[in-house]
Amino acid sequence: MITFFACLVLLLVGFFTYGKLVEKVFRIDDRPTPAVAHPDGVDFVPMKTWRIFLIQLLNIAGLGPIYGALAGACWGPVVYLWIVFGTILGGGVHDFLSGMMSERHDGASISEIVGMYLGKVMKFVMRIFSVVLLVMVGVNFSVGPARLISQLISESFGASLPPMVLSTTFWLVLVLLYYLLATFLPVDKIIGKVYPFFGICLIIMAVGIAGMLILKPEYSMPELWESMGIVHPEGLPKWAMMFVTVACGAISGFHATQSPMMARCMTSEKEGRTVFYGAMVSEGVIALIWAAAGVTFYNGVGALDAAISAMGQGGVVYQISTTLMGSVGGVLAMIGVIACPITSGDTAFRSARLTISDWFHIDQSNVVKRAALSVPLLAVGAFIATSLDFNVLWRYFSWSNQTLAMLVLWAGAVFLHKYGFPAMCSLMAALPATFMSAVSVTYILQAEEGFRLSTSIAYPVGLVCAGLCLGIFVWRTLIVHKGDVLKPVADNA
Which residues form the CstA N-terminal domain (predicted)? Predict the structure, then answer.
């Protein structure tokens, strides 16, 4: 329990110290935000800070910090370290920079931001990459909830309902219709009203789980020093598997696709640390709690892995929640495994719409033009969900997600250099970008869905590639173009 509390304190301290440092380096000011400068009633809609924070938390969290943390807990309490330091030094920086760079560039999508700082070729790659990634997320978070709802209705009501209502297809259609509305309607009509409620539920569930683990004497949280020798039950190496398995709750490229949505709703740059860095720290706390719950509730990684294999992560969440919190836990678990993925899927499709509109400069305040993007996007999602084996595509999502985080961090490092920030401050983004470069390259070389190379090859190649990336960055920015800085963004706008 000492380890758990120490990590929890580190996360909170990280927000007030390192988060403050990141904010200071970025040099926030009182310039008009995009929502204030030109509200359009659709995507650029001013909202209160607490509402934006809860929406951002649910945008980036959903089931990520629960499912990922439970899977990561199969490596034992060592995963706490990745959650804590990944959040403070990597994820918080990544989310803050992606949100604030978008705010400085009139709410631009992350693909446009990366292209501004890493070149035209990378802009084109990122546009394709982002849209494909977002549609993948949207489809996965439509099929999964539809299947769970169908199963729950069947078990609860059985033959008393028509067969059509019990089918997964029926609920999939309803979920996709909701996605269409959430993608098309102004951000404050559905997302702005529903998300804060589910964000609060996500927090309450995590706090309740943590409280029961601490208060109930039959549970004893393992300490880090007692379990350093733990090996994953399936023999998976920590490097780089653990750093890709636990994305949401440490660092996740998907967050960068969501942050611009809230950058279009802020009324002051001073909200940035709370909305972006703060939501990431909150997600880290949720992930820490669920990782602790996994290894504590099942009293070891072997039993946890067996439970995940037998019931799936949704079943594990339900079992832990109902055992620790009774009927209240059951309700919260159902909200978690059904509502939370839906609230990630709808914003994934919405972000895809915004990415395409930025790409082709399509005015989204126009109802017809907005519908012309929303309807085909959902049609493609429906086709994939009902026709293709999405499980094969989803295997590549984790790697794609962390590769996106790597690219966003490199773009953030170039941003900090180009706009005249102290030279060493750009390393605040460049160092985690280097780390994620090593993770992304190593993972795809050794993973089952990648090249399946041995660790003796994947490890050194990954480290060399990361070193080359850092070397090129240092050479081109801190040495060759040391004095080549631009005026503040506001002066160039």
Answer: 3-138, 164-294
